[in-house]
C-alpha cells in the first residue's frame, strides 16, 4: 500500500454482501481501503473493481475471524502498512436461524466468536491506535434483532444486543479521545445472509426487506456524522419507537411474526 495522504478505512466482511457496499461508499469519498474476509478470490475482485472505478489504493488481507489469533494478526498486518487508520467498519457477522436446541455448539461458537469476540478485540486494538493518532471513527454492525429479537434467532440476536450495548458504552468512554463509535441497526436487507442463516423469507418478511445499498449509504452517512445509533428507514425507526413502550416478551412476539414462515418450517 502506498504512503498517500488519503484517509484510510478497514472494512471487515468485505468479500460480499453489504461489506462491498460499505467499501464502495468509502471509495466514492476517496478513502483508501483495507478489505478483509476469508474468501481471497472475492476480495480481489472487489479490490480490482474499486481501484478501476474510483482510483483509490486498496489492499486485501485474508482472515478468518473465528480463529483466536486472527484479530491480532489482522491488526499487525494493517500496522505493517505504516498508515494511520481513520475508519474501522466491523461488519463481518453471521447467524443461524433455528430452534435453540437444534443449533449445534459449533454454530453457536462461530456466531459468538465472529460477532462478539472478534468485533470487541478489533475495537480495542484499533481504537487505541486511533486515540494515539488524534482520533478516528468506528462503525459496528449490529442489527434490528438487537431491539426486537426473534426467538428462533436467539444466539444471533443476543450477539447483536451485545454489539449495540457495548458500542454505545465505549462511545461514551472514548469521547474525550476523539474516537467516535456508531452502531448500525438495520432490519433485514437483501444480501445472501438470510438464505445462509436458514430458509427463504415469507411474505411479511419480504415486505420488510430493505435495499442493501441504501442501508450501506445510511451507515456511512451516520458514521461520518458520528451518530451514536443508525436505524435506516422510517418503518424501522417507528418499530424502534414503539418497541420502547412494549414488554420485552411482546417485542419477541412481533419479531417472530416477521419471520413466521421460517418458524413454520421448524
Ligand atoms: N442481511 C441482513 O438482513 C442483515 C440485517 C442486519 C444486520 N446484518 C449484519 O450485516 C453484516 C454483514 O452481513 P451480510 O448481510 O452482508 O451477509 P453476508 O453476505 O453473509 O456477508 C458476511 C460477510 O462476513 C464475512 N465473514 C463471515 N464469517 C467470517 C469469518 N469467520 N471471518 C471473517 N469474515 C467472515 C463474509 O466473508 P467470507 O465468507 O469471505 O469470510 C462476508 O464478507 C453482518 O454482521 C450481519 O449480522 C445483516
Task: Give a verbal description of the structure.
With 266 residues, this protein is an alpha/beta fold. It has a single domain, classed as NAD(P)-binding Rossmann-like Domain (Rossmann fold), CATH 3.40.50. The protein is 51% helix and 13% strand. It contains 11 helices and 7 strands. The protein has a 7-stranded parallel beta sheet, sandwiched between helices. Helix 1 packs across helix 8 and helix 4 (105-132) runs parallel beside helix 5. The longest helix has 28 residues, at 105-132. The protein is globular, with a radius of gyration of 18 Å. The N and C termini lie far apart (48 Å). The structure holds NADP nicotinamide-adenine-dinucleotide phosphate (NAP).
Give the assembly state of these chains.
single chain
Distance between the termini: 48 Å
Largest sheet: 7 strands, parallel
Considering the protein shown, what is the CATH homologous superfamily? NAD(P)-binding Rossmann-like Domain
Widest beta sheet: strand line-up: 3-2-1-4-5-6-7
Structural class by sheet pairing and helices: alpha/beta
Shape annotation: globular
* Ligands (ions, cofactors included): NADP nicotinamide-adenine-dinucleotide phosphate
Secondary structure blueprint with pairings:
Layout: E1 8-12, H1 18-28, E2 32-37, H2 40-54, E3 58-62, H3 70-79, E4 87-90, H4 105-132, E5 136-141, H5 154-173, E6 179-184, H6 193-197, H7 203-208, H8 212-224, E7 229-230, H9 234-243, H10 248-258, H11 260-265
Parallel strand pairs: 1-2, 1-4, 2-3, 4-5, 5-6, 6-7
Helix pairs in contact: 1-8, 3-4, 4-5
Residues 13-19, 37-39, 42, 63-66, 91-94, 114, 141, 143, 186, 188-189, 191-194, 196 line the site of NADP nicotinamide-adenine-dinucleotide phosphate (NAP).
Amino acid at each position: 500500500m502506498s504512503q498517500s495522504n488519503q484517509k484510510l478505512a478497514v472494512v471487515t466482511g468485505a468479500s460480499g454482501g453489504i461489506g462491498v457496499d460499505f467499501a464502495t461508499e468509502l471509495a466514492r469519498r476517496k478513502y483508501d481501503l483495507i478489505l478483509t474476509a476469508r474468501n481471497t478470490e472475492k476480495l480481489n475482485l472487489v479490490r480490482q473493481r474499486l481501484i478501476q472505478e474510483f482510483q483509490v489504493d486498496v489492499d486485501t488481507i485474508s482472515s478468518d475471524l473465528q480463529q483466536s489469533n486472527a484479530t491480532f494478526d489482522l491488526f499487525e498486518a494493517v500496522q505493517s502498512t505504516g498508515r494511520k487508520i481513520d475508519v474501522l467498519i466491523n461488519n463481518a457477522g453471521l447467524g443461524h436461524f433455528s430452534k435453540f436446541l437444534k443449533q449445534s455448539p459449533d454454530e453457536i461458537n462461530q456466531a459468538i466468536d465472529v460477532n462478539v469476540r472478534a468485533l470487541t478485540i478489533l475495537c480495542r486494538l484499533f481504537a487505541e491506535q486511533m486515540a494515539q493518532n488524534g482520533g478516528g471513527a468506528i462503525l459496528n454492525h449490529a442489527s434490528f434483532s438487537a431491539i426486537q429479537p426473534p426467538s428462533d434467532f436467539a444466539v444471533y440476536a443476543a450477539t447483536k444486543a451485545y454489539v449495540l450495548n457495548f458500542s454505545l458504552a465505549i462511545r461514551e468512554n472514548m469521547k474525550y479521545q476523539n474516537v467516535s463509535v456508531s452502531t448500525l441497526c438495520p432490519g433485514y436487507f437483501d444480501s445472501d445472509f438470510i438464505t445462509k442463516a436458514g430458509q427463504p423469507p415469507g411474505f411479511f418478511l419480504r415486505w420488510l426487506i430493505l435495499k442493501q445499498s441504501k442501508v450501506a449509504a445510511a451507515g456511512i452517512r451516520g458514521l461520518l456524522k458520528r451518530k451514536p445509533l443508525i436505524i435506516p428507514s422510517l418503518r424501522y425507526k417507528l418499530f424502534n419507537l414503539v418497541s420502547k413502550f412494549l414488554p420485552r416478551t411482546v417485542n419477541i412476539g412481533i419479531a417472530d411474526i416477521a419471520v413466521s414462515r421460517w418458524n413454520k418450517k421448524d
